[in-house]
Write a structure and sequence with these properties.
This protein is α/β, with parallel strands linked by helices. Helix content is 49%, strand content 12%. The protein has helices spanning 3-12, 16-29, 47-62, 80-92, 104-108, 115-133, 145-159, 188-197, 208-211, 217-235, 239-246, and strands at residues 38-42, 68-75, 97-101, 138-140, 168-170, 178-180, 257-259, 266-268. The strands form two sheets. Strands 3-2-1-4-6-5 form a six-stranded mixed sheet, sandwiched between helices. The chain has a two-stranded antiparallel ribbon with strand order 7-8. Helix 7 (145-159) crosses helix 10. The protein starts with a helix and ends in a 5-residue tail after the last strand.
């Protein structure tokens, strides 16, 4: 049996409950894919985006809803060995990637403030633009369950607001384009387990800050939040699941205040007391 077929089968058989069912569940519950969508699956070279590509491939083959895929890889200035690893994995896993280049790494290393925030915004802009050139109406990113709850807790602890990344959203700068996150219900530990089970090696964060051993505030905060979640999970093993469910179960009657998303106006519970 060819290697990529073995790896595909592991997603639907060994990891059916933890990965495949949660992937399909998110696609259905959040209505991420519609008939005749053309979706650009964005591959960074890391474990999350590559797993997403394989899940989307498998779904496309068997879905009753017809849709098509493009697999796009942006090279923001990788070292040759990092790009080679991405190309090697794509060939191994039978993913027909389309690579294009940008100078994002050179730009963000010269700015002050949060390079990760700027890098993410620039990456998304380039990905939307390339996807649109290919005739796509959606881009799919590999953010997962842990990214969602970490973002929620980071927003509360560091930004004094309650918010998280959504399973899908409309682009504000590219009309008619949407961003979807089909791995929204898949836990990172299961993605790591899948990669290890198949003996796969993926690209880690390959930006110049990380490779130079430089500290970045945003990365430090996310690592800190991961540690906090891991510690609380020792006391309450269902902690992460409860936080995730709480994002879907907000009791508006017992919220002290909120901000109107459209107008930006702030409201207190006293207005309807």
């Amino acid at each position: 049996m060819e290697r990529h077929i073995e790896i595909e089968r592991s997603i639907i058989k060994k990891y059916r409950k933890s990965i495949w069912n949660n992937f399909v569940g998110a696609v259905k519950e959040y209505e991420l894919i519609r008939e005749n969508d053309k979706i650009a699956v964005c591959i960074s070279g890391g474990k999350d985006s590559v797993l997403l590509a394989k899940c989307m491939q498998e779904l496309c083959r068997h879905s009753e809803v017809p849709f098509s895929l493009e697999f796009i890889v942006m090279d923001p200035g990788y070292k040759p060995e990092n790009r080679t690893l991405i190309e090697y994995n794509a060939k191994l896993l039978n993913i027909p990637i389309h690579i294009f280049e940008s100078n994002i790494f050179d730009v963000v290393t010269e700015v002050t403030g949060s390079p990760c925030y700027l890098c993410a915004r620039m990456r998304r802009g380039y990905l939307y633009s390339e996807a649109k050139k290919l005739g796509c109406n959606k881009i799919a990113l590999g953010h997962h369950f842990d990214d969602a709850i970490e973002t929620l807790l980071m927003s509360m602890m560091y930004s004094s607001e309650i918010k998280t990344m959504l399973p899908k959203l409309h682009s504000t700068n590219f009309e008619g384009m949407e961003l979807i996150r089909p791995l929204y219900k898949v836990k990172e530990r299961d993605i790591i387990s899948w990669a290890n089970y198949n003996g796969l090696e993926f690209l880690q964060c390959a930006c110049k800050f990380t490779e130079a051993g430089m500290q970045n505030e945003e990365l430090s905060k996310r690592k800190e939040t991961k540690k906090i979640i891991a510690e609380i999970r020792k006391i309450n093993p269902e902690m992460d699941d409860n936080v995730f469910r709480s994002m879907h179960n907000v009791n508006l009657a017992q919220i002290v205040g909120y901000r109107d998303a459209d107008k930006g106006e702030k409201h207190l519970f006293t207005e309807k007391y």
